[in-house]
Structure formats: C-alpha cells, structure tokens
Amino acid sequence: MKPVEISKDIYWLGVIDWNIRDFHGYSTYQGSTYNSFLIMDEKIALIDTVKKEFADELIASISQLVDPKKIDYVISNHTEMDHTGGLPRVMHRIGEDKPIYCSKMGQKNLSKHFRQKWNYQPVENGGELSLGKRTLTFMETRMLHWPDNMFTYVNEDKILFSSDGFGQHYAGVERFDDEVGEAIMPHAKKYFANILLLYAPLILKLVDKVKEMGLAIDMICPDHGIIWRKDPEKIINSYVEWSLQKPRRKAVVIFDTMWHSTEKMAETIVASLAEEGVDARPMNLRNCHRSDIITEVVDAGAIVMGSPTINNGLFPTVSDFLTYMKGLKPLNKVAAAFGSYGWSGEAVKLINSEFEQMKFDIIDPGVRINYVPDDKGIDACYELGKKIAKALPEK
Ligand code: FEO
C-alpha cells in the first residue's frame, strides 16, 4: 500500500486484509486492516507491525518512505500475532539490534512468541521516549484486552496510538472516520462487543483517568480499521455508553430449533414484545453468527433464550452461544428461557443455570412445551413476552 501521511511526518503504513472472513471465531464480513505507523522525526519510530503473511508488504511500504535500516526504534503496543506476526521479518530487515519498546508483559509475551534475544526496552506506565522534536508517552492499558497492551501518545501532535482500542474490523479504501461517516459505528460496536465487553469496567476507569489527566486527543489511531480524526470524542463517548450497558427497551430472542416448535415459540414471544413497544429481534443461531448476536446483546435489557432438548441436554449451538456470552460477561440483563421437548425436557433448566452463573435477573421459570405448541402453549409464550416487556425500562 502507498503510505498515507496522517499528520506531518507521521504515516499510516497498514495493510488491508480484504478476504478475511473469520478472525479467531469472529465473523469479519468486511475484512480487516492491520495498521502500522511510522513517525519520521530526528529518530524514526515504527509503531506495531502486521500479520506474518503481510510482512513483506509492510516492508515495501516503509521502503517507499525510507530505507528500513534507518528505523531507530520499534514500539510494540500489543503482542497479539495480528500485530507482531510480521515482527521477525521486520527486525531482520531493519536490524536485529534495534530497540523494541513495549510493556514488561509485552517483553514476556514477545520472548515466548518468537524466542529471539531482541533488544527489549520495557517501559513503565508514563515512561517517555524522545524522538527529537517529539516525545512519546507510554500508557499501560493492561487487560485491554491482553496483559501486555499499552497506548502510545505523541505529546506534540496529540495523537493516541491505541492498539486494539477503538478499532474496527473494516477493510476499505477509506482511512479516516469522516470518509466513512456513521456507517463505521456498527463495525466499532461489533469490535467492542466481541473483543472488549469483558473489560467494560476497566474501560470506564481508563476514560476517567484520561479525563483527569486532561489529555488532549486530536486523533486516535487504532491498529484495525479507520483513524478517528474528525471527532475522536465520539468513539470515546460510545465506548463509555457501551461499557455502562444501560439496559434499553430491547430484547434479543436467541434460539435454535429442530422441527420449528421452538422457533414458533420465539416468534410468538417476539410478537408479544413488539406489541409492547419493545425493540425485539429473533436471532436464530443457525443463521446468525455469534459475533453478531453478542453485538445486539450489549445494549439489550433482556436476553431470552430458547433451545430444544436433545440427548437430555441443550442444542449444541445454544451451548456454544452461552459459553461465548458467559465469557464476555454482559451486565444488567433480565432473562428468560423457553423450549420445546419430546420426553425429558432439560433445556430450560440448563439455560437458567447458565443465566444464574451470569448473574442475570431471571424473571420467569421459563416456558417448556411438549412437542408442538398448542393454543395453550402459544398463550404461555405470549404471556412470557408481556412479562419481559414489563421488566424492561420504559423508553
Ligand atoms: Fe488486533 Fe488483540 O489484536
């Protein structure tokens, strides 16, 4: 790719992964980018690299600006392989003795990933590195979303290099928020839901800390997707909103079905909720990807889950989603379960047990229907919808 000057002497050098559709289990329908940045000051610093298979493309981009051997420092904000897989080739090209600035955990992870005796320069939170006219400040952001994560802030340009934070899996010819507009927000929300939701309380603390510090931010450069330059505050405020998980009058009805009985129950519950002005949406696990469903979970007030009973247990897609959702620890949900069964009928009880572990507020023991729902069964689903609607906040 041709480097893009994002501020005077600061370049985006990322690569565009147009074809990736599965990012460790997260559906990336619109591809992704791996963003790397070069700051050309009296000293030259490279911030983050790219996935292994794109390393040569990154080196070619650097070469359009400067001989790679002239890079003085490498900054590694995050050690996950989508940002460091290309590091061995880059180090080989720029010089194996070049210092790598990273957090202490970053050093530990890089050593274990690559088993190289590189010239690590672990930094503390608040540590600084002068490039000449500019100074970089390092901010540890542990567990956002790995123990090694840190941000790098360029004091003079007021640019924050935020590794995964504020990123989006979005491949496009656009480089900046103002070039995409509102259409970028669903991608940013999906990224938050799947990568950062678990750490929502830490995000709120971090935002408070940044506000206390009075850090001026003119531009946020994440390692995926577009750069926030028009309105960086917008994505920060969205992160606060998503992290707070204030329940909306919204219900996500998540289910799978074998012979359409549980599906019929789901559709009745959705229709009943809709009558009460609830933003209700059925999400059939066979057709909706877990990473899209969890995106809807973030601001939903109610989680309603349906499963047929199979082999005395949950339908496998339902177990899969419950495992995924439990790991991401969504907060502030009311919940209810439903499902059709033939002879043993454990599914509703098993879903409720998972809800309890997630500390959801279970507002009903759940609706179980033997085989195909009759009128009485349909009425029970309809009433469940009304009960859920009552438990949700008014608009
Ligand atoms: Fe984009 Fe945590 O890696």
Please explain how this structure is put together.
35% of the residues lie in helices and 25% in strands. With 395 residues, the protein is α/β, with parallel strands linked by helices. It folds into 2 domains: 4-244, 4-Layer Sandwich (Metallo-beta-lactamase, Chain A), CATH 3.60.15.10; 252-390, 3-Layer(aba) Sandwich (Rossmann fold), CATH 3.40.50. The strands form 6 sheets. It has a 7-stranded mixed sheet with strand order 1-2-7-8-9-10-11. Strands 17, 18, 19, 22, 23 and 24 form a 6-stranded parallel sheet that branches. The radius of gyration is 24 Å and the shape is elongated. The two termini are 47 Å apart. The mean pLDDT is 97. The structure holds MU-OXO-diiron.
Short structural summary:
This protein is α/β, with parallel strands linked by helices and 395 residues long.
What is the strand and helix layout of this fold?
Layout: E1 4-7, E2 10-12, E3 15-17, E4 22-23, E5 26-27, E6 32-34, E7 37-40, E8 44-47, H1 55-63, E9 73-75, H2 81-84, H3 87-94, E10 99-103, H4 104-114, E11 119-123, E12 128-130, E13 135-140, E14 150-154, E15 159-161, H5 177-180, H6 185-196, H7 200-213, E16 219-221, H8 232-244, E17 248-255, H9 261-275, E18 279-284, H10 290-297, E19 300-306, E20 309-310, E21 313-314, H11 316-328, E22 334-341, H12 347-357, E23 361-362, E24 367-370, H13 375-391
The structure holds MU-OXO-diiron.
Domain unit count: 2
Coarse morphology: elongated
Helix content: 25-40%
SS content category? alpha/beta
The total count of strands amounts to 24
| Main pleated sheet | 7 strands, mixed
Query: Could you state the CATH homologous superfamily of the largest domain?
Result: Ribonuclease Z/Hydroxyacylglutathione hydrolase-like
- The neighbouring-strand order within the major sheet is 1-2-7-8-9-10-11
At CATH level 3, the topology of the largest domain is Metallo-beta-lactamase, Chain A
How many helices in DSSP terms?
13
The share of residues in extended strands comes to 15-25%
Radius of gyration: 24 Å
Q: List the bound ligands.
A: MU-OXO-diiron
Average per-residue pLDDT, rounded, comes to: 97
Distance between the termini: 47 Å
Q: CATH first level of the largest domain: which class?
A: Alpha Beta
